[in-house]
Task: structure prediction
Amino acid sequence: MMTQTQSAYPLLKLARLTALAALLQTLFTACTTVTIDEYQAKQNIHINEGEHVVVLGRRHANDYETEPDLIDCIGDILDDENEVIKVIPERQFIDALYPWFEPRTAPLRVKDMNRLLARDEVAQAIQKFNIRYIIWVDGNTETTSSSGSIGCSIGAGGAGCFGFGTWDKESDYEAVVWDYQNLENLGQISADASGTSYMPAVVVPIPLIAQVQKNACKAMGLQLRNFLNPNNEGGAL
Amino acid sequence: MRPAPRMATMAKMTLIAMTVIVCGCTNSLKVKGEFPAPLITSLPQTLGVIYDQEFRNYVYSEENEDRSKWIIDSGPAQVALFNQVLPELFSQVQELQSLPTPASPATTDLVLYPKLQEFQYSVPRETRFKIFEVWMKYNLSVYDHQGVLIADYIVTAYGKTPTAFMQSNEEAMNAAVVIALRDLGANISLSTKRVPEIKSWLEQHPPTGLQAAPETASPARQQQHKENDQSSSLPSPPNRQVAILED
Result:
């Protein structure tokens, strides 16, 4: 019995720490508002077994860049909790099709795919992935305003901070879904998210972070999953 | 006797703090990245390429005192990019040590001599945008096998990357340089055949010298052909209106 108690103790401690971390994350997370807008150009959208989806970021704008981690996040959500949608990682797809999906060369409209598919080597490379849908995501998350100040000092007796800071973040993303098999635009989904983060500091700074990008990703990922596979109940928002 | 060790400790801490402050002002990086082989149709001609020491060991060092100090070693990365792209663009590529002359001609049809003319960057602190940007200007000189200049033209490359949580400035700048080099590779892959002087020369000169069948051009291409053969059982490509394009 003694042995069992000793071996169980670290697991119990780990479980308590995990629960504490989850509680702190819940308590110290500020609110985010997400608005989803969907336009569906065609009904009866479905995906067959063995067909794949690729999520790509638009990167041709001058003053922003669609974040690669957001693209990975949307891909992960599309891939999760269903057996139907299989996502090809963005990097794997654009490396295999280099240089045709670089910021300088990527097709901007679905009709531009004809230009690429006229090249046998490109058509064969895409065919190898058995792609059904190409999803282009454009947008970014930015800090729109910030205020307050926090001062920290260190001395012989210790260190500490005092003050209050706050900042607003906004996400604005749009996903366009192309049906590769029929070369047509199936629709668009936009996700607008905003949230305010706070950081009060009384000796120790306590961040209350609004996870704006993460929530925009989650909302868009679930909406896209429902868009591509409406029969999957787990995909509904 | 007690103050002496305390003074020594304080001196050490001051020295460490000053070292951290001085080192902290300089961002130094050796560009690391992998470049995929371009998916293009290769020319039947052969190519010699000259990487001089300046190109091979290129290091950008920021001299402007108003800017943060950056030392960017991009020489090996740009050589790696050229070595990945050129074997896919020409049937065979070999490195040369010097320009050919009529007395000592090259065994290849063409000779490429690339030079990096300008390297520029911007960081978020300067532009207020949360992106690192890199811009490069290359001068590409193309000679025939006797060293006669055929084309001398400029190719630019641009890359940017957003800042990310838990990502250092060096990692972000490295990503921007790698994206710029990929852009350079895309530009060279797609535009070389369209340079008027090169296009005209290719039309007038059928391939001679070291020639290789496209299938034996590079291991990457061989692998690609092999994979394409294996994928022949996959469903057919989509219905499409094919637009015929000329390079």
About this structure: Chain B touches chain A at residues 35-41, 129-131, 160-162, 164, 179, 182-183, 185-187, 189-190, 224, 227-228, 231, 234-245 (CB under 8 Å). The first helix of chain B runs from residue 3 to 24. Helices of chain B lie at 3-24, 53-56, 75-89, 124-127, 169-191, 196-204, 219-230. The two ends of chain B are 83 Å apart (CA to CA).
